[in-house]
Task: structure prediction
Amino acid sequence: MNFIGGKWSWPAGAAKLTSRNPADSRDVLGVFPDSPAGEVDRAVQAARQAFPAWKRCPAPERAKIIRRAGEIMARRKAALGALVTRECGKPLIEGLGDVQEAIDMAELAAGEGRRLYGQTTPSELPNKLCLTFREPVGVCGLITPWNFPIAIPAWKALHALVCGNTVVLKPAEDTPLCGAAFVKALEEAGIPAGVVNLVQGTGERTGRALVSHPGLALISFTGSTETGRGVAESCGRSGKRVSLECGGKNAQIILADARLDLAIEGALWGAFGTAGQRCTATSRLIVEEAVYERVLTRLLRQARRLRLGPGLKKGTQVGPLINERQMTRVLDYIALGKKEGARLLCGGRRAQRGPLARGWFIEPTLFAHVTPRMRIFQEEIFGPVLSVVKVAGLSEAVRVLNDCPYGLSSSIYTQDVNSALAAVRDIEAGIVYVNGPTIGAEVHLPFGGVKQSGNGHREAGKAGLDIFTEWKTVYVDYSGKLQRAQIDNS
Ligand code: ADP
Result:
């Protein structure tokens, strides 16, 4: 169902799509529409109509609704977490974590309702006041991926809303129910009709219609780099603001002086958490030669022990891939890695033992003796595949890390403060972790990447407000006479 102008409805004539559990394709969660352009237009019109009143609603009042939505999600956390796991496959502790992130984001965005600070600054002329306000940009189209199916809609929508924008959300076609559950929390929290609208559908049909709709001021997109580029192109043509959060090829460096136990634990979590399907997942491991063999031995031992299974089963550490297409894509990359001459240490196959055959599982896969120019070391795979490269020391490690088209997250494990700080300075990425894995963002810090990982914007943190607001600069002259600025009085 879609949610438009405060009402849930099924668009006339829309094709029916099915949401299935990726751990067991027989398990159907529900059906949802592939909404056509006319339905997108209805949602945009509803959001446009609701915009003037929402913009004038005092920000602390807007924040109250956001806070209530957070409380509703907190009350429902167990059920929502299970829904996330059932619809996108990640283990239950990660599903619950996804919901917690949305709750945290509600707390952060609601607090912003009593800040949204502008600036005051002295004027160059006497008896004159200069100040700035943040103003909403208008109707925002939000396009979200499936891997954080409640958290990412929350990241985008709650900041957009507290700033006074109205929104049209199009969740990923793999996780429509999670998108709907998030919108339901806002509905129950009392969001006025038309302020939040939900249109379900595929990227090709509904997503495209949203991006090209002339009634939107902004598109905030999270997904693949390739799709993101097309979205930005279309937004450029129609003059919309656009914020892109795209792919990554994140690397972890292990120097010889690192705590190897921690470094290996971090690499395993970074690479195989969410089955490697995070934009911040570790897919490259860069290891100093003095510890290379030791790291490989321990990594292999521990990777083999990871428990693959349905996310709802207790003890599961690695869940399925999101769908068959994505599983095939990852298997193709594994075949490519072998062809390129990398050494497959473990995994590399679809896991089909017993009930696993009903889902899209791939065994955690390790490649050693990888060289930096191999495609498996350069291209985003988005699956449980980790490629290990040997380097001589810190400077080569940083060079190899940077020699990549992406720049989202990164990590270095070392006990040496000088090496750590040099890496922090030299690594080309939006996020650097020291002695932590490449995954694990916190909502009150800016999130985003450089190079092909984005287009210069950040989400979350205070920086997350920037895309959703325009600055208004106000000059008040209380001198009682014409004072001329931009005039050379000397
Ligand atoms: P992923 O590989 O993670 O599925 P996509 O970039 O394909 O990444 O999808 C991310 C989001 O973008 C999804 O909501 C999807 O429906 C949407 N999408 C895909 N193609 C388009 C498009 N051409 N225009 C707008 N949105 C799209």
